[in-house]
């Protein structure tokens, strides 16, 4: 049998493109896209060609027409913050 060398291109982490789909939960610092000029940073997202999440939350996408080129649609990636599951704090009773 012949041996196969190198990395499988499908599983290679450094390839360009979208890394996380809509509706998925992400943590802070998770890379969302690599080398992506198709996508723009939205709410709670930072970066230029590599977009990453600024906070923990869920991913969603929106499309918006450009201001200069009316025909061009831009896709924005946003991170919606997760709702905290903390119980409300009890107020101290004064007598």
Description:
This protein is mainly β and 95 residues long. The protein has a domain at 17-81: Beta Barrel (OB fold (Dihydrolipoamide Acetyltransferase, E2P)), CATH 2.40.50. 0% of the residues lie in helices and 36% in strands. The protein has strands at 17-18, 25-26, 31-34, 39-41, 45-46, 51-53, 57-65, 73-81. The strands form two sheets. Strands 1-3-6-5 form a four-stranded antiparallel sheet, with no helix packed on it. It has a four-stranded mixed sheet with strand order 2-7-8-4, with no helix packed on it. A hairpin with a 4-residue loop joins strand 5 (45-46) and strand 6. The radius of gyration is 20 Å and the shape is flat. The model has no long low-confidence stretch (mean pLDDT 79).
Q: What is the H level of CATH, i.e. the homologous superfamily of the domain at 17-81? A: RNA polymerase II/Efflux pump adaptor protein, barrel-sandwich hybrid domain
Report strand order across the widest sheet. 1-3-6-5
H/E series, N to C? EEEEEEEE
CATH topology of the domain at 17-81: OB fold (Dihydrolipoamide Acetyltransferase, E2P)
CATH architecture descriptor text of the domain at 17-81: Beta Barrel
Largest sheet features: 4 strands, antiparallel
Alpha-beta content class: mainly beta
Give the low-pLDDT segments. Answer: none
Give the count of helical stretches.
0
- Shape, per Cα inertia axes: flat
Number of E strands? 8
Which helices and strands appear, and what pairs or packs with what?
Elements: E1 17-18, E2 25-26, E3 31-34, E4 39-41, E5 45-46, E6 51-53, E7 57-65, E8 73-81
Parallel strand pairs: 4-8
Antiparallel strand pairs: 1-3, 2-7, 3-6, 5-6, 7-8
């Amino acid at each position: 049998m012949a041996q196969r060398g190198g990395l499988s291109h499908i599983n290679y982490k450094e390839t360009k493109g979208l890394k996380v789909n809509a509706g998925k939960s992400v943590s802070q610092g998770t890379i969302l896209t690599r080398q992506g000029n198709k996508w723009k940073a939205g709410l709670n997202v930072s970066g230029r060609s590599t977009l990453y999440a600024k906070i923990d939350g869920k991913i969603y996408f929106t499309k918006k027409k450009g201001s200069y080129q009316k025909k061009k649609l831009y896709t924005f990636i946003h991170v919606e913050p997760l709702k905290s599951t903390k119980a409300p704090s009890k107020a101290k009773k004064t007598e």
